[in-house]
Amino acid sequence: MDTGCLSSMNIAGAKQAGSFAGQLHTQRCFTSSSVQASLRNKGKGSRRGLRALQVVCQDFPRPPLENTVNYLEAGQLSSSFRSERPSKPLQVVIAGAGLAGLSTAKYLADAGHKPIVLEARDVLGGKLAAWKDEDGDWYETGLHIFFGAYPNVQNLFAELGISDRLQWKEHSMIFAMPNKPGEYSRFDFPETLPAPLNGVWAILKNNEMLTWPEKVKFAIGLLPAMLGGQAYVEAQDGLTVSEWMEKQGVPDRVNDEVFIAMSKALNFINPDELSMQCILIALNRFLQETHGSKMAFLDGNPPERLCMPIVNHIQSLGGEVRLNSRIQKIELNPDGTVKHFALTDGTQITGDAYVCAAPVDIFKLLVPQEWREISYFKRLDKLVGVPVINVHIWFDRKLKNTYDHLLFSRSSLLSVYADMSLACKEYYDPNRSMLELVFAPAEEWIGRSDAEIIEATMLELAKLFPDEIAADQSKAKILKYHVVKTPRSVYKTVPNCEPCRPMQRSPIEGFYLAGDYTKQKYLASMEGAVLSGKLCAQSIVQDSKMLSRRSQESLQSETPVASQL
């Protein structure tokens, strides 16, 4: 995850993989080839590390997203960066090489400016970070799904020429049945019907999770959201999901059967904590866009398959991406503006503008004392990252009771999971399954040992795979595992957080924020991160004349001093 100096990863398995916090503090400025070499060397010489990607899964065609309103709107924002070139490029220093930071840099480079991205760790991606173990197998910070309702992400893939790296799955949502161990219930969206009819059809055709009276009451409860639009959605920020359901007269079983799984998948917390606004934003996207809820997996590890193409693009236009460049302090000028970013190795990085694209918990540690009482920064205190754990288990056999898709576990301890040996081309294995599972809510587990987490996970898997997995491993045996703990992930979307989310342009001239926690119309998600980066870049481009003038005035004020020395 994009956890910067708060990173306290405990990554272990049958063979200890060690901790990645704080290693390799030497600053390096990478060309695209050297970053690729750095990624490849994690597992160099292993059997799987040398294997090329192969097409081994039968995926579904890419949905026709290009003519949808949201896709076109996102594309127009992208093209606006290429419409006019600056007379003198700005040098913009960006802290964080997650999706938000890389997106900011990509669109600034498109606009003719020179971004310098500083990443604290030795891996790209932030919340998309992944590592290769000594066997050549990858393990990730999270289980990442790319929805059709992610127009800015889909545009980014198209702009980079890598849309074929998304493996689209059938248009379904598949839920485990806790009362029927080993069985699943499906919501299948027909391709022949437009939104919202395809979603209505999927709900009506499923008679295993909700009864007809429950469906009717659920639909009546949702009517104000469907009729009231965005204004209604935003007004529900003060209510938890559970409170909203009670107010709307929605049966408790809808919570048990649907909303618990949705809440944990969206924000890693339960409905009694999650703001209803979060659920309604997702439902609106899924119900209003024909292909909005259609899912795709990336065809391999995110650092190489998604982040590196962005880095290559940035560098091809004159920008830089530096790993192992951890910010220690934001140094200020006498007027309270940023003087430079001071790194832990003593380096000082200066620019015409500065962006912090680190997670909100990291940024709060870096906020200078002089800024702390400004309401823009003070409101950030309410935004706190939620803990999450990502578990990877390699078994000694191919599990049969699974799908080439994302699965909602409906377990009290697990959120969603997937058999990545089926769902992802690079991770494909015809003989053995690798389950990647999101362990959430994780607050009570984040401090426990990996062995305890694996033991609890196996108890849950025994319910999902009763014929194939037993908690004591008397059936399928664990070959190895990796546990990735993120103490602070996406911000916890509890009620009344929305007013605390900052705009990308701060009240400090020349200082900006990017990140999925900043103000944008999507959730704390990959789409939110990319959109925040575009909005941040847009603000800087809009301010470019002011920023150029400030830099020029600063140089002129320093000239007399320089001549006296």
From TrEMBL:
Pathway: Carotenoid biosynthesis; lycopene biosynthesis. One of its GO terms (molecular function) is phytoene dehydrogenase activity. Its main location: plastid. It comes from the Eukaryota. GO terms for biological process: carotenoid biosynthetic process. It is a peripheral membrane protein. Residues 99-540 form the Amine oxidase domain. One of its GO terms (cellular component) is chloroplast. Keywords: Carotenoid biosynthesis, Chloroplast, Chromoplast, FAD, Flavoprotein, Membrane, Oxidoreductase, Plastid. Its cofactor is FAD. It catalyses: 2 a plastoquinone + 15-cis-phytoene = 9,9',15-tri-cis-zeta-carotene + 2 a plastoquinol. Homotetramer. Homotetramer is the active form of the enzyme. Belongs to the carotenoid/retinoid oxidoreductase family. PANTHER family: 15-CIS-PHYTOENE DESATURASE, CHLOROPLASTIC_CHROMOPLASTIC, PROTOPORPHYRINOGEN OXIDASE. NCBIfam families: phytoene_desat. This is Phytoene dehydrogenase. The lineage of its organism: Eukaryota, Viridiplantae, Streptophyta, Embryophyta, Tracheophyta.
